[in-house]
Amino acid sequence: MSKQLLYSHNSDVIVAALNHRAFAVVSSSSSDYQTSQNATVYELMAPSSKSSSTDAPKSDGNDKSGDKPNDDNEIQAVCCTKIGSCLWFAVSRGVKTLSLYSIPAESNTEGGSEETAKLLYPSAIYNLPKRARSLAFTSVDDLQVIVAGDLSGDAIAFPVPTDAPSSTSNENEAVKAMSTPKRLLLGHTASMLTGLNVVSSDQQQQFILTADRDEKVRISYFPETHIIHGYLLGHSSFISCMDAISNERTLCLTASGDGTSRLWDYQTCKEVGMLPVVIKKSAQEDDGDDMEEVDDEGKPTPEEKDEMEENDVDGEEGDDFDEDFDDEEEEESFDHHTVAVPLSVALHPDAKFAAVARDEIQSIDIHPIPPVAEKSSLSTSFQLSNFVSLHKKQTLECKSQPLAVRFTSDSSVLVLAREPEYLLHFSATDGANFNDISQSSCLTKALCKVAQSQNITMPATTLERNDYGECTLQKKEDRKELTAQQNTEKGCLHWNDPGRKVTAKKAQARKRHRKKAKGEKQTNEEASN
User: Fold this and answer.
1) Closest to 133 in 3D by CA, of 363, 414, 404, 358
2) Burial of 356 by CB count in 10 Å (0-12 exposed, 13-18 middle, 19+ buried)?
3) CB 3.0 to 4.6 Å from 426: which of 179, 253, 409, 434, for a disulfide?
4) Per residue of the chain (529 residues), what is the pLDDT tens digit?
């Protein structure tokens, strides 16, 4: 699955994972990061082996999460927030530890050396039963907690020690692993969590959204996680990443191994839109074009194209957003091509845009989300019950493979990429188009100088693959490609397969036929007697 390698708080604080090292970048000015010359970089140091060994969980030799020998300090997920007057950072590593770091919010005015980062050692360390690929800060009444979603399908809450001293730069003063009581919030049976978000609905009710390997997103009440609000069903493969927002529009964006990225209303548990699927050309037929786009069912019909044109917002003819389909693309053949799996998705805080980065595609797509009609007096959840057009887009080219994408509170887009760029920054102009400001942004300049000076090598992708290049989250038996006879014999029809209804109708018809034949036989026997 994809890892949570980039996170931001407002527009002046970010935390990024560069392979096995985590860095926090804090701008000295939250109002204008382009004119600000100071941005402090902190390296969030891994806990020492001594400090992380206390009460460490032992391996039972039957690890269904797929853990395998690798770099123990490889970053799995990062997160950040502001609690009171302190900035808090969280880092999950492959050694199955969760480290928390804190600094005073006012300390970001000090600045630092251009090519070195200040070292921070953890304020708190928790041992995890499995690797955690998703993190989220939230609160329960007056208690601040960090929720971790791990590869065994569990969501676990750990307390944030807000009364603990700030992180230290002295390794000898680093804390040891804490055995503070934790709370198991929920679990996905025999599955893996691939995404986690804690959000608020339009009724001031908190939800926890958890995505898993089995193509679904569960929406549970928080902190009463035993009460399930509903499910988001529609994907036909594992969910690779997810993002959700909390404002008057209760939206969630998910991406899957089936290549689709779908927009949902988690209040009504309905799908409200879908981003076009990107098709990668096979190596034998690659003639220079990296990708083509189709919808979920294939090429659009003429009626669908007319509907798309009618749904387009007036006045956007001259901007940089282009249509996904043209006549030349309709004539292309998609045989032997592969679907580009989304690595990361992001929603604009005000539900204006949706962004997606895909595997082996050196660009990200920004799709504008149509606004809600102001004249309607219906609730937002009800207004989004029908599909919205998401076919317009702006493509932001990247010189290297993008690994994660994130919107900031000022509508900017941050992109974590491979070396030598590491971090790209795109700013929204006129509220519609995005321009690359990486050369002038103090956030990107500060992080890139530190990373380039230390020659950090980034991974080629955030999807885990086996020795044959297959995604480890993809199930060994692709149930969608089984014939109806195989499905009937094995009893393993996919939950969303329409063949279930066909099989059930045939079974009922056979049952009625046998019952009718039996009745006729009994009638004939009685008549003969």
Assistant:
1) 404
2) buried
3) 434
4) 579 999 999 999 999 999 999 999 998 765 555 555 689 999 999 987 655 544 555 544 444 444 443 467 899 999 999 999 999 999 999 999 999 999 998 765 555 556 788 999 999 999 999 999 999 999 998 899 999 999 999 999 999 998 888 877 776 666 666 666 789 999 998 889 999 999 987 667 899 999 999 999 999 999 999 999 999 999 999 999 999 998 888 999 999 999 999 999 999 999 999 998 888 765 555 554 555 565 544 444 445 545 554 444 444 444 454 444 443 333 333 455 688 999 999 999 999 999 999 999 999 999 999 887 654 445 555 444 467 888 888 999 999 999 999 999 999 999 999 999 999 999 988 767 899 999 999 999 999 999 999 999 999 999 888 777 778 887 765 544 434 444 444 455 555 566 667 778 888 889 889 989 988 888 888 888 7
Residues 6+ away with beta carbon under 8 Å from 470: none
* Token pair in block for residue 391: 């076919």
Residues across the chain: 529
Q: Running DSSP on this structure, what letter comes out for residue 380?
A: H
CA distance 113 to 92: 27
Give me the residues paired with residue 77 across strands.
4, 92
3-class DSSP state of 45: coil
Three-state secondary structure of 349-366:
CCCCEEEEEECCCCEEEE
Cα 381 to chain center, whole Å? 22
